[in-house]
């Protein structure tokens, strides 16, 4: 049990030294393997643990100055960029995009990020004379639900593409088939919400076959749903060849697998959020890869309590205390510098107008709850991040929805923006972290911002994504 006077903060200097000799040694020896002793042609694997992937990613990353554009994972799965104009001209292409954008009460789009992210793939296809059949879901409809229709997306899609997008009232059936038949080269037909059919999420083969019958080939650009084996993300690949990744999906893989698998070092991971339970897999996976791990958000109080500290009325997962202790031990054994906040902003209630004050993490009084990291922690985190070459961030440092408790999260966002400007690879791993960098206005300068929530987490945990596994493998490459 750690001292009850202060939370565990493993020495950054000592741990990074240990990391070099212990944790990083196997990686270093891997990179020294002579190429003459490796088969000249391999199929690069997809999982982040693949040593050949690590080897090739490392060589690619070393050759790139500043922001990486297209990393090694583009070699693992065939991309839409690998198709020639002859492959695309006049062909009907079924494109699964993630156009699940938020709408207000008047059906106006409040954030078009996902639409904009889908545009490069669609433009590439129409510029090469393809006939694009665009499919997506919106919300969580139970059967046909008018408020979840994709109709409100048509004006913005048309504006961004510079052509008039045609909208179908269904996603299968005779009327859809007629619209597909009349689609000109370079035209785009937006199908109705694919989740209006329960068969979509059940991945029923007959439904997938009906979707696939509309097209000649398949492009999956919906990273946000790639962790689900649905009819439009996995089922259709059994009936359409080729089945390839779109540019957005490819970029997600390049960063979330490629850059994390074999990063420029030192490599730091920042993990926040309210519960340890939702980030167990991510933390355990990152402990195998990173040199520095910074923890924030509500999860820190479970770690504090596991060390015998008083946490007042802060959020604690009582059934995860042993897990927190084991993660601290694992970090030490791996030579990873695990930094917990040393001070916190506490409140007398969970509300934007709560009374607040800053206290050491070891001195949270009864009846008060921690809602943000404190200024000393921000300074320590910034100093640690200042030593890095690659940073991935998933989860806020506090209740950033309340301005009074958003300081820690916004400080991290600003620091990463500063580091990105200095050539550090900065990856925002989905969810609330994306909202944070957009709120601060620094999203544009980050190396990569993931469009997937659950998909990002599963990929960072090292899990295979069904929507990706189903795609065609790329041609073998020399290493």
Write up this protein:
The chain has helices at residues 12-23, 25-31, 51-62, 73-76, 85-88, 113-127, 154-161, 174-181, 198-202, 205-212, 247-261, 280-287, 300-306, 321-334, 375-385, 407-421, 432-440, 454-460, 466-469; strands spanning 41-42, 92-96, 131-135, 166-167, 188-190, 217-220, 243-245, 267-271, 292-295, 337-339, 343-347, 356-360, 369-373, 390-394, 425-428, 448-449, 477-478. The chain folds into two domains: 12-16 and 265-441, Rossmann fold (3-Layer(aba) Sandwich); 76-252, Rossmann fold, CATH 3.40.50.1260. Helices cover 36% and strands 13% of the residues. It is elongated, with a radius of gyration of 24 Å. The strands form four sheets. Strands 4-5-3-2-6-7 form a six-stranded parallel sheet. A six-stranded parallel sheet has the order 10-9-8-14-15-16, with helices on both faces. It has a three-stranded antiparallel sheet with strand order 12-11-13. It is α/β, with parallel strands linked by helices. The longest helix has 15 residues, at 113-127.
Structural topology:
Layout: H1 12-23, H2 25-31, E1 41-42, H3 51-62, H4 73-76, H5 85-88, E2 92-96, H6 113-127, E3 131-135, H7 154-161, E4 166-167, H8 174-181, E5 188-190, H9 198-202, H10 205-212, E6 217-220, E7 243-245, H11 247-261, E8 267-271, H12 280-287, E9 292-295, H13 300-306, H14 321-334, E10 337-339, E11 343-347, E12 356-360, E13 369-373, H15 375-385, E14 390-394, H16 407-421, E15 425-428, H17 432-440, E16 448-449, H18 454-460, H19 466-469, E17 477-478
Parallel strand pairs: 2-3, 2-6, 3-5, 4-5, 6-7, 8-9, 8-14, 9-10, 14-15, 15-16
Antiparallel strand pairs: 1-17, 11-12, 11-13
Helix pairs in contact: 6-7, 13-14, 15-16, 16-17
């Amino acid at each position: 049990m750690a001292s009850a006077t202060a939370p565990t903060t493993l020495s950054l200097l000592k741990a990074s030294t240990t990391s070099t000799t212990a944790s990083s040694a196997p990686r270093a020896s891997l990179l020294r393997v002579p190429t003459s002793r490796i088969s000249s042609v391999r199929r690069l694997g997809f999982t982040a643990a693949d040593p050949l992937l690590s080897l090739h990613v490392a060589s690619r990353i070393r050759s790139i100055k500043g922001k990486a554009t297209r990393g090694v994972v583009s070699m693992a799965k065939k991309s839409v960029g690998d198709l020639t104009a002859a492959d695309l001209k006049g062909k009907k292409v079924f494109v699964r995009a993630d156009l699940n954008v938020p709408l207000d009460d008047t059906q106006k789009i409040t954030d078009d990020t996902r639409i904009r992210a889908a545009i490069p793939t669609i433009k590439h296809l129409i510029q090469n004379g393809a006939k694009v059949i665009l499919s997506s879901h919106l919300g969580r409809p139970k059967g046909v639900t008018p408020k979840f229709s994709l109709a409100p997306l048509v004006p913005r899609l048309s504006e961004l593409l510079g052509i008039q997008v045609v909208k179908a009232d269904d996603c299968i059936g005779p009327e859809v088939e007629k619209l597909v038949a009349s689609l000109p080269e370079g035209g785009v037909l937006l199908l109705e919400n694919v989740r209006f059919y329960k068969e979509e999420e059940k991945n029923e083969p007959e439904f997938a076959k009906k979707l696939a019958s509309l097209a000649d080939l398949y492009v999956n650009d919906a990273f946000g749903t790639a962790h689900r084996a649905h009819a439009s993300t996995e089922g259709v690949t059994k009936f359409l060849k080729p089945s390839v990744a779109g540019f957005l999906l490819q970029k997600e893989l390049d960063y979330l697998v490629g850059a994390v698998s074999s990063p420029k070092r030192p490599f730091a991971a920042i993990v926040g959020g309210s519960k340890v339970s939702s980030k167990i897999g991510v933390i355990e996976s990152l402990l195998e890869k990173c040199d520095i791990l910074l923890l924030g958000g509500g999860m820190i109080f479970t770690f504090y309590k596991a060390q015998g500290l008083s946490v007042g009325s802060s959020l604690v997962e009582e059934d995860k205390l042993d897990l927190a202790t084991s993660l601290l031990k694992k970090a030490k054994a791996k030579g990873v510098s695990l930094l917990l906040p040393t001070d916190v902003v506490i409140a007398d209630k969970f509300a934007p107008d709560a009374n607040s004050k800053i206290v050491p993490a070891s001195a949270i009084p009864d009846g008060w709850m921690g809602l943000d990291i404190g200024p000393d922690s921000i300074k320590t985190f910034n100093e640690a991040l200042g030593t890095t070459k690659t940073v991935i961030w998933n989860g806020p440092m506090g209740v950033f929805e309340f301005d009074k408790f958003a300081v820690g999260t916004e400080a991290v966002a600003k620091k990463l923006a500063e580091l990105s400007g200095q050539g550090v690879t900065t990856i925002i791993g989905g969810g609330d972290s994306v909202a944070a960098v957009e709120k601060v206005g620094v999203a544009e300068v980050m190396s990569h911002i993931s469009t997937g929530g659950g998909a990002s987490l599963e990929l960072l945990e090292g899990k295979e994504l069904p929507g990706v596994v189903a795609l065609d493998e790329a041609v073998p490459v020399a290493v």
